[in-house]
Structure formats: structure tokens, C-alpha cells
């Protein structure tokens, strides 16, 4: 199955109190696609990049069990694993630049609107 969606959104406070700013993932390259930030990859990211809204991805989910959970709606959240390279602390931690380590399909994303938006059966 092929999925498309936003792994992170700009200018929104997540559940940990972090806010990603535009440009934070400007140098992003395809990274592993995991499930719940652990284990071996469950698919492959084909395209990744920032637009005005956030960090958009297109990926192929190859693990049949994970694909079934995405299809059923049980695993529709997206989340990023990253290392902050530049941040500013205020009321929230503004992440200005980060090194992306992985993108995960998750049941509960740190940002509620970071979700799989399109599923295409292949």
C-alpha cells in the first residue's frame, strides 16, 4: 500500500511542548519508516519534503500486518524521530533545525493532525 500524509506540522504545539518552525527539516532525505518508533522498517519512504503546512511524506508500507492496521484506521498517525540542532526556548521549545532520524506510523501522534491522509492500494 502507498500512503501520503504529514509527519509533522509547522507552528503547532505538540503534546511534549515542542513547536516545529518552517525550514526545520529543509534538508530531509528519506529515512526509515517504522511502527511506533521501534523495530525494523515496515516500509520505505519514497518522497519527503517541506511545504507551507509541514513535512509531507509519500511511502510504501510493505509489512502486511502494518498495512492492515493502517487500512483499518488503527495506525493512522505519523510521528518523527529527530535530533534538534537549533532550538529556542520560550513558552515552548521552538525547533528551528533538526536532523530527521525516522518517521513512524503511530496510534497516537505527538501532533494530533500529523496523519496519513491518503491510502492508495498497489
Please characterize this protein's 3D structure.
The longest helix is centred in the middle third of the chain and has 9 residues, at 64-72. This protein starts with a strand and ends with a strand. The relative contact order is 0.32. A hairpin with a 3-residue loop joins strand 4 (38-50) and strand 5. With 122 residues, it is mainly beta. The chain is 7% helix and 56% strand. The model has no long low-confidence stretch (mean pLDDT 96). Strands 1, 2, 3, 4, 5, 6, 7 and 8 form an 8-stranded mixed beta sheet that branches. It has 1 helix and 8 strands; from the N terminus they run βββββαβββ.
H and E order: EEEEEHEEE
Report the strand count.
8
Spatial extent as radius of gyration: 14 Å
Estimate the strand proportion: over 45%
Spans with pLDDT under 50 lasting ≥5 residues? Answer: none
Largest sheet: 8 strands, mixed
Helix content: under 10%
What is the 3D form? Answer: globular
- Count of helical regions: 1
Question: What class would the helix/strand composition place it in?
Answer: mainly beta
* Termini gap: 5 Å
Average of the residue pLDDT scores: 96
Organism: Sphingomonas olei
Pfam family, one: Peptidase_S78
Protein name: HK97 family phage prohead protease
Keywords: Hydrolase, Protease, Viral release from host cell
Amino acid at each position: 500500500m502507498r500512503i501520503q500524509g504529514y509527519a509533522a506540522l509547522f507552528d503547532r504545539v505538540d503534546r511534549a511542548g515542542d513547536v516545529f518552525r518552517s525550514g526545520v527539516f529543509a534538508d530531509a532525505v528519506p529515512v526509515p519508516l517504522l511502527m511506533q518508533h521501534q523495530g525494523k522498517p515496515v516500509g520505505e519512504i519514497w518522497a519527503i519534503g517541506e511545504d507551507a503546512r509541514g513535512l509531507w511524506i509519500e511511502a510504501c508500507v510493505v509489512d502486511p500486518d502494518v498495512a492492515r492496521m493502517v487500512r483499518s484506521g488503527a495506525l493512522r498517525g505519523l510521528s518523527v524521530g529527530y535530533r534538534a540542532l537549533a532550538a529556542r526556548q520560550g513558552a515552548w521549545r521552538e525547533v528551528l533545525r533538526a536532523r530527521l532520524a525516522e518517521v513512524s506510523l503511530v496510534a497516537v501522534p505527538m501532533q494530533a493532525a500529523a496523519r496519513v491522509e491518503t491510502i492508495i492500494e498497489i
